[in-house]
Amino acid sequence: MRKYMLRRLLLFIPTFMVITLISFILLVNAPGDPVERMMTASQSSGDNTQSVVQQEQRAYWTHRLGLDLPVFYFSIHSLAEPDTLYRIPNKAERNTLSQFIREYGNEKEILRFYAAESALEKKVDGLACLAADDTVTVCDHFNSDRVAMRMEWSKLKSTTNPESIRLIIQNTKTFFLKYDFLGKEISVVENLENNFEDILRHPQTWKNYIPCISFHANNQYHRWLFGDGQSNGLLRGDFGISYLTKQPVEEMIRGKIGWSLFFTLVSVFFAYLLSIPLGIKAAAKKDSRFDRISSMILFMLYSLPVFWVATLLLMTFSNTDAFHIFPASGIKPVTGYPVDAGLIDKIKLSLPYLILPTICYTYSSLAFLSRTMRVSMLEILSQDFIRTARAKGLPEHSVLWKHALRNSLLPVITVFANVFPYMIGGSVILESIFTIPGMGSQIYNSIDAQDFPMIVAVFTLTGMLTMLGYLVSDVLYAWADPRISFSENTSAA
Prior knowledge:
This protein has about 500 residues and is mostly helical. It has helices at about 1-30, 35-40, 50-65, 90-105, 105-125, 135-155, 160-180, 185-200, 220-225, 250-285, 290-305, 305-315, 345-380, 385-390, 395-410, 410-415, 420-425, 430-435, 440-450, 450-480; strands spanning about 75-80, 210-215.
């Protein structure tokens, strides 16, 4: 058993790496620009200060999220594509540059054109009205034209169509020549035009057909997994920053998982505590009145939708017009716990809020496990070693609970493996109905808001807990049935 446990634990390492790699691929390829999601929303206008602030925010969040690093330990690209495109903070601009390179192949001219675009943008941000006469009227027109032109210039980094680019450059020239005090600055526009014409005159598309490989010791995956100065890494419980709240994901999970974990463990405890005796008794008294009645009730319970049962319980036992016994929502009084309340006092105050949700969490599992236990027990009771035990005169209680029970637990143990990933998932429906601040509602809100770091964190934790569940199930198999052995030297029976 020890050797088997060691082998399984060692097998967890490559399995864990595969899970983290898949999670990282999902995170990197998620739609949208994470930097745009993290940036503080600002009011739209042509204000230069606003543009500078946005650029500073973009640079900050790009570095904070590690997006200024290559994606993986190595990258395969064409000879035309430089391995430094990841340094460009704007995702849309990176995509436009990649498309430019695929179309023309001359990356040096394309990068010079991109630098000229940035120089033009910087020059525009520094423009000021220097009219000598009729200053108010001229400057008003100037500011209005500059706002319109900024919209034009923003398209330069999002298109590769030659006609569109030439039109924007021509309009830019017209703008600079319209105002006398801008005439001396027109060289930045001419430089942009010359760089673009160089792209068209010297295409090198053949470079796109020559593959290259580049290696990157410091990359996004390494940082995401092991951390650096900005992040502690996944191995130390750092799942990144939420796009929705800008808080660390692990703090959000830590604040929500407690109640999901509580209801999962309590419901599993009561489900197994009640289902095993019910299944054993129903199997021992097959076709009896108890077996028929219990089967009918359990089938009814299993078929009832959880949202319907939850609503019915609230309408019956939390309704002032019926039986107002339990609170309708929440997990504690609205005013909170008293300042001097101890643990026992908190449990007493929260207990009425927990009864109805616990029933809803438990009844379906109870019905399923009871039927599973009954079927498994019937199969075991029909085997030869049970008939031999009865023939020896052993009491029926000993036959059922000592000889048959452990062998019939295998299907129930298999189901038990699913408990571990369920801890992180919670129940969206029940948490919404009973207003429980658990992981179910958090996951739903994250999916609705496209908060991908939280989604990927849940995916990763679910995979890890699934591995743990299978390991625990294997150990319980060997405990329940001595015939099961994980030793390589054991011969088949």
